Amino acid sequence: MSIKAAAKSDFMTVKKITHTTIREVYPHYYPEGAVLFFLRHHSDESILDDITEGSVFLCVNQDHIPVGTVTLKENEICRLFVLPQFQGMGYGKELLDFAEAEIAQNYTEIMLDASFPGKALYLKRGYTEYEYRTVDTGHNDFLCYDIMIKPV
């Protein structure tokens, strides 16, 4: 397994990992309006801008298959996704280890927005709830999430 910076040529791979994970996992936790919100939030433009800024990383397994991605913005971990068929194999842990080590080089605190599917992992890793937020996504659906923090 390796983690590398994503290049512009990796755009479709990052998008596929992100959107596939949202489409397959999030409907078990969120109403349709919230799932659509996540897909719009992780738009082509957003992903490409982050790749251009050098803040997107890809996790590639031993068979050279891209299995996960993470985006780092200053002291914030964003867009951490592992394809559903590769979840539970330690790739999420490796991405989180990588992200925390990168952030710890320049900051004393790590922040992230925790979706329902990821919250248990973050709690196990020592993150604490800082703030609870809801977003009206339309269609009488709401997106609920926690902002979590962890000292380095």
Profile the largest sheet.
7 strands, mixed
Helix content: 25-40%
Give the CA-CA distance, first to last residue.
25 Å
Order of helices and strands: EHHHEEEHEHEE
Name the structural class. Answer: alpha+beta
Binned strand content:
25-35%
Which spans have pLDDT < 50 for at least 5 consecutive residues? none
- Round the Cα radius of gyration to an integer and report it: 15 Å
**Global shape:** globular
Mean pLDDT: 96
In DSSP terms (H or I, runs of 4 or more residues), the helix count works out at 5
Physical arrangement of strands within the biggest beta sheet: 1-2-3-4-5-7-6
Number of strands: 7
Describe the protein in words.
The chain is of the alpha+beta class. 38% of the residues lie in helices and 34% in strands. It is built from five helices and seven strands, in the order βαααβββαβαββ. Strands 1-2-3-4-5-7-6 form a seven-stranded mixed sheet. Strand 2 (56-60) and strand 3 form a beta hairpin. The longest helix has 15 residues, at 11-25. It starts with a strand and ends with a strand. The relative contact order is 0.18. The model has no long low-confidence stretch (mean pLDDT 96).
Q: What is the element layout, followed by pairings?
A:
Layout: E1 2-5, H1 11-25, H2 32-41, H3 44-52, E2 56-60, E3 66-73, E4 76-82, H4 91-104, E5 109-114, H5 116-124, E6 128-138, E7 141-151
Parallel strand pairs: 4-5
Antiparallel strand pairs: 1-2, 2-3, 3-4, 5-7, 6-7
